[in-house]
Amino acid sequence: MGLSHRGLQLLSNIATNDKHGENSPYFDGWKAYDTNPFHPTNNPEGVIQMGLAENQLCPDLIEEWIRNNPEASICTAEGVNWFRYIANFQDYHGLPEFRNAVANYMSKTRGGKVKFDPDRILMSGGATGANELIMFCLANPGEAFLVPSPFYPAFIRDLCWRPRVQLVPVECHSSNNFMITREALEDAYKKAKEDNINIKGLILTNPSNPLGSTVDRETLRSIVSFINEKNIHLVCDEIYAATVFRAPCFVSVSEVIQDMEHCNLNLIHIVYSLSKDMGLPGFRVGIIYSYNDEVVSCGRKMSSFGLVSSQTQYFLAALLSDDKFVDKYLGESARRLEQRHSHFTKGLEKVNITCLPSNAGLFCWMNLRGLLKEQTFEGEMMLWRVIINEVKLNVSPGSSFNCSEPGWFRVCFANMDDQTVDIALKRIRAFVGKETGSKPVEHKRWKSNLRLSFSSRRFEENVMSPHMMSPHSPMPRSPLVKAT
Ligand SMILES: Cc1ncc(COP(=O)(O)O)c(C=O)c1O
C-alpha cells in the first residue's frame, strides 16, 4: 500500500521528491515485461527484456575459475582458514590485495598504457554509489554538471536525487554520429551561465551508454582542454571500458592526460565498476580513481557508506590478480560481444534497420525514424508502445536518454542467449515487414527446447523497486530456499 498524503508529510524532502526516476513512463516497459515475461517454454509469447544492459555472455569462464580455485572463497573448506580475518575486516581503505588487483585490472582494461596507483582507489556500491559519492565531493546542492546527451537515464537519480546536483545537457546530434563538439560544450556552458547556474563539472560516459561508441582521442583532448579552461571537474564514467569489441580501441582519459602538457590533474576523476566488464552487477563493486588528493582523502571517509564487502574484496583480489585468467577473460568477452553484435545488427539490416556505428557496450542505438507516424517525441512514444504491447520487446526509447531527436531506441543484446536473440529478431522483422508492406517473416511457433534466457535481476538503470517483481518472472530458485 502506498503512503497517504499525510504520511508523506512526515517524511523528508529527499524521501518524497521524484528524482529517483521511478515515475517515468519508461517504466511502463518494465511493467509490461514484469507482468508477462518471455519464457521459451512456459511463456513463448511473452515480452523479451531488451532494456537491461547486462553482460551475460561469459559467466562460464568465471564459474570455471571458481571451480579451479576453491581457496579464493572464505566459505569453502579450502578457504575457511581466512574466514575470521576477512569477516572481521572493516577498514575503509579496503584490503591492500584488492586495491592492487583492481589497479592492475584497470590498467589491463586500458590496454596496459597507463598505471594506476592503488592508494588512489576508493570503493563504493557499484558505479551508482561511485557517481553519487563523487558528486558529494565536488558539488554543492544546486550546482550543476554538464552531461552530453543522449545520456544514461539514472544519472538523474545518482547525481540529482540525494546530492541535489543539477544536470545541464550538452546536445549532440545524429548528423555527426552524436560526437561531442567544442561548440556544443561552449553553448551549454554559456546558456547555463546566462541562467545563473554554477557549472562545477562535466560528466562523460566513455564508452557511451546508450550509443555504444567510444570517444576518440582528439575529442577527449578537446574536452580536457575545455574543462581546464573553465576550471571545472571532469568525471569520466568508464564502466564499459572492457566492452570494446572492435576498432577503434578504447582511449581512457587517464591515457590522454598523461600525454597533455597543460592539465590540472586535480580536476580529473574516473568512475569504474565491475558490473559491465566482468558481468558482476550483483557484487556491487564500484571504484573512484581520483587524481585529486583532497578528493581521495574525503572520498575515502565517505566511502564508509557504501563499502564493498570484505568477502567480495577477498574473492576478487584472487580473481583479478590471476593475469592469465584476466587476459583470457578479456579476449574471450570481446570476441563474444563482437559476435553477438554482428549477428544482431546483420539481422536488423535484413529489414533495412540501421544502428549507429558502434564498437563497444552491451547495446545498439537503433534508428527507427522511418517507422514514426510523426517525427516528434509523441510519435516516438506511440511507436514504443506498439513495440512493447504488440511486438512484445522491451526496448528503451531515446527520450528516456534525453536524446534531442525522436526515433532512436536502445536495444540491449548481451543479456540473453542466442535463441532468444533470434526470436527477438524474428519479431522485429515480422513487425517491420508488416509496417512497410514488405513480406512479413513467417511467424512460427517458437521451439520448445530453449534455455532460460535472462537473469533474475529485474531492476537496473532507472531504479526498479522490488515491488515490481512479478510472480510470473523466470527467476531461478535459490538453492538456499527449501522447496515447498
Ligand atoms: C553509464 C553507467 N554508469 C553507471 C551505471 C551503474 O552501474 P553499477 O551497476 O555498477 O552501479 C550504469 C549501469 O547501467 C551505467 O550504464
Automatic annotation (TrEMBL):
InterPro entries: Aminotransferase_I/II_large, Ethylene_sulfur-biosynth, NHTrfase_class1_PyrdxlP-BS, PyrdxlP-dep_Trfase, PyrdxlP-dep_Trfase_major, PyrdxlP-dep_Trfase_small. It catalyses: S-adenosyl-L-methionine = 1-aminocyclopropane-1-carboxylate + S-methyl-5'-thioadenosine + H(+). Belongs to the class-I pyridoxal-phosphate-dependent aminotransferase family. It comes from the Eukaryota. The keyword S-adenosyl-L-methionine applies. Pfam families: Aminotran_1_2. This is 1-aminocyclopropane-1-carboxylate synthase. The lineage of its organism: Eukaryota, Viridiplantae, Streptophyta, Embryophyta, Tracheophyta. One of its GO terms (biological process) is ethylene biosynthetic process. The keyword S-adenosyl-L-methionine applies. PANTHER family: 1-AMINOCYCLOPROPANE-1-CARBOXYLATE SYNTHASE-LIKE PROTEIN 1, BIFUNCTIONAL ASPARTATE AMINOTRANSFERASE AND GLUTAMATE/ASPARTATE-PREPHENATE AMINOTRANSFERASE-RELATED. Its EC number is 4.4.1.14. Residues 465-484 are annotated as: Disordered. GO terms for molecular function: 1-aminocyclopropane-1-carboxylate synthase activity; pyridoxal phosphate binding; transaminase activity. Pathway: Alkene biosynthesis; ethylene biosynthesis via S-adenosyl-L-methionine; ethylene from S-adenosyl-L-methionine: step 1/2. Homodimer. Keywords: Ethylene biosynthesis, Fruit ripening, Pyridoxal phosphate, S-adenosyl-L-methionine. Residues 48-428 form the Aminotransferase class I/classII large domain.
